[in-house]
Write a structure and sequence with these properties.
The protein is an all-beta fold and 332 residues long. The chain contains no helices and 22 strands.
Amino acid sequence: MDEEGEVVSIVLQRENGPATKALSVDVIPTNYVLRYIVQVYSVKADNSIDAPFGPRKVFGTTETTDQTVAVTVPKGVNFRIVAWADFVPKSFKNPDESYGYLFYNTTSLDQIQIAPITFAYSDYFTTNMRDAFCANELYTPTQLHSSNFKIQLRRPFAQLVIYTMDLDKLERIGEMVSWEDGGTIKTVKVTYETGAIYDCFNLLTGIPFHSVGNESKAHSHTSLLATTTKDSQRKHLFVDYLLVDPINETKLNNIKVNFYSTKVHYGDKTIDMDGNPFTEDGLVAANTLMNIPFKLNHQTNVRGNLLTMTGAISVTLEEGFLEPDKEEKQNY
């Protein structure tokens, strides 16, 4: 194969910016950068990926605008450009000006894996820094010098956001809950009961998959509510990013949402802050939500009185993480 190449400039565009209800503008928080990975691939006769063409480019930026990057592409033949963007701390910068990974292990682009939760990121299930964007686009030689040589990065996720609307009525639960010390509900546990959650993503094919041992088990996430208060901000309890198959992009899942008076350990979710096993003994409220929909590049919002367990639960899908999709709205 002819390995001759030429240098071209491409514009990297992100779709919609960071997805969160906590932020009203597209910003990158202090001490973080948006890390881009760009790799050019030669292609086979059917335009599927063949092999990397040249080195991978990795760079970080604090800018939210489109990014222009120079890459070397095969000359006179079709090729693909694969790109990934996610958030990492500025301190993860390497001597060669590249950046290491935080939330997603991007060592192999055909096996991007959700990285283990660490002690340092105890707000894992409330932070919007887990957002990410990707692209895999085929290009022809005639597109090289086009003024519109751009690649748009889209999310590979569905996003789940859980709110509770009854924090001002916690006294109805009983004496277990008291606001004198800032609140004794310390932990929320979310369990996806039907169908395992994908934890890997093949950027070269656009298909998520299960790592070995994660093919069929129920998936639980335990999140410490480190700043439990009665203000409206605490209604926003839990955020998760779920890899979704683009072929079968709509998925229904039964979800348990449980609240505990015990405080789960930051680093080891199987024990409490005193080192004892984290058990169901501290259970304050338990909810089972049936047939919750997840859809690629849609935000699933669950709202209701999850602590007092009164009234209806509202579940909505918002297309593109921005505007409500009225046809998808459903009450449970």
